[in-house]
Amino acid sequence: MRRLNRVYGDQIIQFEDGHLAGAHGAALLAKEEVPAKQFEMSEPENLKANKWAFATRPPLKLKLSHYPCWDVEECYIDKYQNEIRVTQIPRTQIVQCYLGVDIGSTSTKLAVIDQNGEIICDVYRKTDGDPIGATQKLFSALLNINRRKCFKFDVYGCAITGSGRKMVGMVIGTDRIINEITCHVEGAMHVDPEIDTIFEIGGQDSKYMRIHNGRIIDAAMNCQYALKDRMILNELGYTDIPILSPTTHNSYQGLPEKLRRRVWKYVIASDILMKLRCKKRPYASDQSLVLKIFKDEVTHLADAIESCKHFERVFEQSLKRLGSIEQSEDPKPLVGIVGEIYVRCNAFANQDVIESIERYG
Question: What residues form DSSP beta bridges with 81?
Answer without folding.
Answer: none
